Amino acid sequence: MILDVIVEDKKKRLVEHKAAVSEEEMKQKALQSTRESVGFAKALKKDGLSVIGEFKKASPSHGAMDIKVDLKERILQYNDSVDAISCLTEEDHFYGSTAYLEQIRKMTNLPVIRKDFIIEEYQVYEAKVIGADAILLIAAILDDETFKRLYDLAYSLGLDVLCEVHDEAELQRMLALDVEIIGINNRNLKTFEVTMDTTKKLSAMLPKDFKERGKVLVSESGVSTDGDISALKQSHADAFLIGTALMESDNPGALTKHWKEVYANG
Ligand SMILES: O=P(O)(O)OC[C@@H](O)[C@@H](O)c1c[nH]c2ccccc12
C-alpha cells in the first residue's frame, strides 16, 4: 500500500536528516528559536471561505506537475490571494524539500504549514527550525499515544496542528483527543480515490458545538471546479486546502479569488 511505502521511505530520509543535524542539536535549535509563529488556525477562522494554497511539485496520485512553476512567482501570487500556505517537504513522492519551506518563509507573512509524513519528534523540532507555523499530523499513520505526544510537542513550540482524517473512526479518535483543527481529506491515501462526499459525510458527524468551541474545520484535496466549491459549502468548512488546481493554474491568485466569490454567492 502506498501509504506504507511513503512512511518506510520517510524513515530512511530521517536517518539522513539526523546524520546532518543530530536529534539533540535539532531540539536545541527549536527550543532556542525566537521567531514568533503566525497563527494558522486564526488565519482560517473568519467570515467567508479561507483558502490554504499548497506548493507541491508532484504527488503519487498525479505524478510530476508542471515543474516550470517557479517558487518565487507562485508565492508572490499566493501572497495576495490565499490565507495560508502549505508546503510539501516530503522528498520521494511529492518532490518536496525543507529548503522550499525555508525559502517560502522568507517570502511571506502568511502562516506556513509543513506538509509531510510526521512520525517522530525530530520532524516537529525541524518544522519549527525551518520556519513553519503549523504541521500536519495524519491520523492514519499514528496511534493515539504517538499522535498526542507529537501534537502536544507542536503546541508547546507554538505550532498549530492540522489533524487529518479520512473516515469516521479516525474522526472519532480526533474528537476524543479534543483537537483544535480537523482536516477532512477527500482523497483516500490508500486508494487515491477522491470524492467531496467525504467532507459532506464526516462534517455532518461533528458535534453541534464544534464551531462554538472555536474549533476549525478544513476540507482537503481534490477541489478543481466551481461545482466542488458549491458542493462543499453545506459542510461549513472554514477553509479549503487546494494544491494541484492552484499549482497547475497560470493565475492561482485569480482562481482563488474566483472560488471565494463562488462560495460567497453559491
Ligand atoms: O492537490 P490537491 O488534490 O488539491 O490536494 C492538496 C492536499 O490536500 C494534498 O496534497 C494532501 C492532503 N493530505 C496530504 C497528506 C500528505 C501529502 C499531501 C496531502
UniProtKB/TrEMBL annotation:
What top-level branch of life does the organism fall under? Bacteria
Q: What class of enzyme is it?
A: lyase
What are the record keywords, sorted?
Answer: Amino-acid biosynthesis, Aromatic amino acid biosynthesis, Decarboxylase, Lyase, Tryptophan biosynthesis
Task: Please list the residue ranges annotated as the Indole-3-glycerol phosphate synthase domain.
Answer: 3-255
Q: What is the lineage of its organism?
A: Bacteria, Bacillati, Bacillota, Clostridia, Lachnospirales
Catalyzes what?
1-(2-carboxyphenylamino)-1-deoxy-D-ribulose 5-phosphate + H(+) = (1S,2R)-1-C-(indol-3-yl)glycerol 3-phosphate + CO2 + H2O
Q: What Enzyme Commission number does this protein have?
A: 4.1.1.48
| One family name in Pfam for this protein | IGPS
For this entry, the protein name equals Indole-3-glycerol phosphate synthase
Organism from which the protein derives: Lachnospira intestinalis
| Recorded metabolic or biological pathway in which this protein acts | Amino-acid biosynthesis; L-tryptophan biosynthesis; L-tryptophan from chorismate: step 4/5
Q: Drop me one GO molecular function for this one.
A: indole-3-glycerol-phosphate synthase activity
Family affiliation:
Belongs to the TrpC family.
List the InterPro entries: Aldolase_TIM, Indole-3-glycerol_P_synth, Indole-3-glycerol_P_synth_dom, Indole-3-GlycerolPSynthase_CS, RibuloseP-bd_barrel
